[in-house]
Write a structure and sequence with these properties.
This protein is mainly alpha-helical. Helix content is 60%, strand content 5%. The longest helix has 38 residues. It is elongated and about 95 Å long.
């Protein structure tokens, strides 16, 4: 039987006999658990699908150069040098995604069994004709019915987290000075966080940047990047950052006097060339 057919048979049987023994309930719980597990995509196919989804994002970002959208000014040599680290992050993200989905599956099955057991134990021994069987079936079925949608959400969320993690690898090794935050709060249907919307367009200084170590820059009104949650760090966050690598890309209020003088000297030298 399909999972829904198993649920239907279980509810019909319990409505007919009622909660007359723990054995009857346990037998149906075991059958529902087995049917629910069988109805899911296999772990092998799940990991294959996750790998394909995240590998496509990795390919667009790393192989086809999409990473430069987030890192204007970083050299291709830097990206090539960091490919082993970025590949390791891809593998790590695939494993994390598969583990998260497995935990969600287990939770959904337990919710399904909990709902069934709660309904079944409320039916008096000897059965009843008053039980709302359609509503009971809908309630019991609901947790697993939502699962494919939740699994797609996890894959999408992990894709955003992969992009963010790769960006941090490039920024750290490439010598980024600051990050400009971008929120997708204008996107239709996106359940954005209000504080992330407020960050949109703000530039955050990276605490350990070379320019800060040399006294060329200081935090602007937004503050330090290390003091806030990172893009895509929070569940289902779709924000991203554009990483800045030169003094000329920064807002004027983030330059120290020394930084202003150095930027002017660099521009004068470039003008003379």
């Amino acid at each position: 039987m399909t999972f829904y057919e198993t649920i239907t048979a279980a509810i019909n049987d319990m409505a007919r006999h009622g909660y007359d023994s723990q054995r009857r309930l346990d037998e149906w719980v075991a059958r529902i658990r087995k049917s629910a597990t069988s109805s899911m995509v296999s772990k092998y196919m799940l990991e294959k699908s996750l790998r394909a989804t995240l590998a496509a994002i990795y390919g667009k970002l790393v192989t086809r150069g999409g990473v430069f959208k987030y890192h204007p000014g970083v050299s291709r040599f830097t990206v090539e040098r960091l490919k082993p680290k970025m590949r390791s992050e891809l593998d790590r993200r695939i494993a994390a995604s598969a583990n998260l989905i497995t935990l969600n599956r287990q939770s959904s099955i337990e919710k399904t069994l909990q709902r069934f057991s709660g309904w079944a134990t409320s039916v008096p021994a000897g059965g009843t004709t008053q039980a709302d069987k359609p509503e009971a079936k809908a309630s019991v079925h609901r947790a697993l019915k939502q699962l494919p949608f939740e699994e797609r959400r996890v894959a999408i969320d992990q894709g955003h987290k992969l992009i963010s993690a790769i960006n941090e690898i490039v920024a750290s090794d490439g010598g980024a000075i600051a990050v400009e935050w971008h929120s997708n709060w204008r996107q239709s249907g996106y359940n954005y966080r209000e504080d992330h919307k407020e960050r949109d367009g703000q530039v955050y200084l990276m605490k350990s940047s070379w320019a800060r170590a040399k006294g060329l820059v200081k935090p602007g009104p937004a503050g330090l990047f290390e003091d806030i949650t990172k893009p895509a760090e929070e569940p289902f966050c779709r924000c991203f950052g554009t990483y800045l690598y030169s003094l000329g890309q920064l807002p004027a209020d983030m330059l120290t006097q020394k930084g202003v003088e150095q930027l002017a000297a660099v521009r004068a030298k470039m003008k003379d060339l």
